[in-house]
Amino acid sequence: MRTVVVLGGYGNFGRRIVQALAGDETYRIVVAGRNATKAQAIAREVGAHGIAIDTAAEELPEILRSLSADLLIHTAGPFQNQSYAVARACIDTGTHYIDLADGRAYVCGIRELDAQAQANAVLIVSGASSLPALSSAVVDKFSPQFSRMQELDVGISSGARPPGRATMDGVLAYVGRPFTQWRDGSWKTVHGWQDMRSQSYPRPVGTRWIANCDVPDLQLFPQRYATLERVTFRAGVGPKYSMLGLWIGSWLVRAGILRTLVPYVPRLHRAALALAPFGSRCSAMHVTIRGLNHNNVARSRSWYLIAENDHGPDIPCFPAIALARKILRGEIHSRGAMPCMGLLTVDEILGVGRDLYLRTEESEHELI
Fold first, then answer.
1. pTM
2. Taking CA 357 as the corner, what is the angle to CA 356 and CA 360, rounded to the nearest 5 degrees?
């Protein structure tokens, strides 16, 4: 029986992953985190084992060896200020590793572990989430239709239901902060949660406001798809008053009036939870590719993912679940350390949520 350790297994994402994998009796699931009581409570619900593990503990390699861990799934964010201590412990013990990181530097920097991971025949994968796993899978699906991809625009709009505290910490950390985007073939500085614009999604989502966010895709996609001249990513939340508040906050940070919005996360999270029942229960994601088709005609291809009934927050877990199953079945032979790109197809990822209220739509237009 293969052993899977889910680090942060009682959090928003970790709990969903534990519940998905616990349905397969060929795996032994270990729910882990700093709080042993919470870990054991979730473990009892699904017939797993719960233990306390501190990501910073020096004895982490010994713990993994004692568990005979085959795979560790790291969901204990935020990842923006974390080291690679957990991934290094997995390499040392021959344990495959997956995380749901969305921090740009963290996901892009995972390649520094590549040589060591290959030497120990271990697979270390960062960013097994909506970005860059699902977004890159969509681009890989449609890229053969283009002779030259020139622009890539990606965006996500969540419903009124807020993400977990750790996710909100990570998102608000770069409100008003400068970062770079690939625009017109060079790196340009933009600021978090600015350049706000409206984005139309299929019904029942409709028009949503989205703004600049710093994500791994901004750095990874110009490297992966060499012909791209422009890569943008924006995100937003359903309630327009929340977007207005974030936009105002971004200017306060940019002007130096506030250092960061992170200290306000506990209050903002409580407020968002209280208001969620009165807002939209729909989330959406889009990926739009613009470029030349094989007849040298300028075309635009858009892919949309619509989630209803508050099922949007489940989507970031899908790539990690799908990848874990493939690794445990012995279907992935790659070894080394890498961002989560090229390992999963769109169908494999969305197949995890086949019982949820999800659907995709596509559109294509000739550009004049």
1. 0.95
2. 110
